[in-house]
Structure formats: C-alpha cells, structure tokens
Amino acid sequence: xxxxxxxxxxxxxxxxxxxxxxxxxxxxxxxxxxxxxxxxxxxxxxxxxxxxxxxxxxxxxxxxxxxxxxxxxxxxxxxxxxxxxxxxxxxxxxxxxxxxxxxxxxxxxxxxxxxxxxxxxxxxxxxxxxxxxxxxxxxxxxxxxxxxxxxxxxxxxxxxxxxxxxxxxxxxxxxxxxxxxxxxxxxxxxxxxxxxxxxxxxxxxxxxxxxxxxx
Length: 215
Prior knowledge:
alpha/beta
C-alpha cells in the first residue's frame, strides 16, 4: 500500500497499564465506528487486570472502513486493508517487546469486533484470546471462508444480541462455525433483546479470561 491508500498508518496507538517491556501480557483493543481509542480504553475500568499492557489504535476519522461490514469487501477497500495492517503493526510492536502471541488478546466492539474477528481469521495462530463484542466476520453472504492457518485452541468469545440492528444473528452463528473450523475454542453467547452494547456477563467473561492468562 502507498501512504495515500494506507489511511490509518499514521494514527496514534494509545497505551495504558503496564509498559510493554514490563508487561506479562497485552490486550489490543479495537474501537467501533465513530468511537475513539480512549473510549475503548475506558473498558479497563471494568476488565483491568494486573500485568497487562493495553494498546488501542485510533482509526482515521474514527472509522476503520466506510460501509457496513457485510458490504462487498472491495467497497471497503483500501481502508479495510489499512485497518488490518494497523492491527498487524500493533501486534508486531507487542511481539518485539517479548510478549508472545499466546499472551496477546484481541478485543473489539461493533465495527472493531468485525475487524478483530477478520484479522484473527486471516492471521490464525495461538493467541491468548479473541473477543468479538457485537460483531462478525467481514463480507457479504457467500464470502469464501477458506482461511489458512490454525487458531490452535485459542479461546474465542462472541457475544451479541439476537436483535442487533447492525449485526445479523446468522452472521454471528456463521462466524462461530468458521472460527471453530480454524481450531478456536469458541464460546458464543446470544442475549435476548439486548441493544447494541456490552453487558455485565460479557465483562465478567473477559475479566476471567485475562486473569487466567497472567495467573
């Protein structure tokens, strides 16, 4: 990609928690459409775990890609590829500090959840965890899901409402199946009548997952 097409290349990555060179593990946090890295970091108040470095990249214009996540993939390019590259660079920064993938967790909400799940599927390996809050794999119905690699038992959590106006329930189920086929240990929880938000059950699950990584 060129500087002109890699729209997220120069956006900041906000950090909280332990410095990377002293952290036992890392949580990469991907915000949703119209949100900010700071808003995603506010989750630390609920899920914060000792020993973690928290890294939240910021999308250019507060949006990772322009159209809904089930639009044709080419319609969301080049922003989508730039967003995936941004996550790859953050994970490379974590790895360079000596934190392995199995101690690295990715979490995203809404558009950030879609991006997180798509990144994990395209870059399958054994992570500490993959958490998609109100999201699903990217692309229209019928998108090929022949991703290479293996999640090798990575704990994966997908939480969503059954009536989310942005995320069709069938796409959540499909994402669960694909990530299971990639070797993920997937927990899917569907919450009847919940809005497009994060609930306490999801917070509790994430906090427990993080605690187990640094135990």
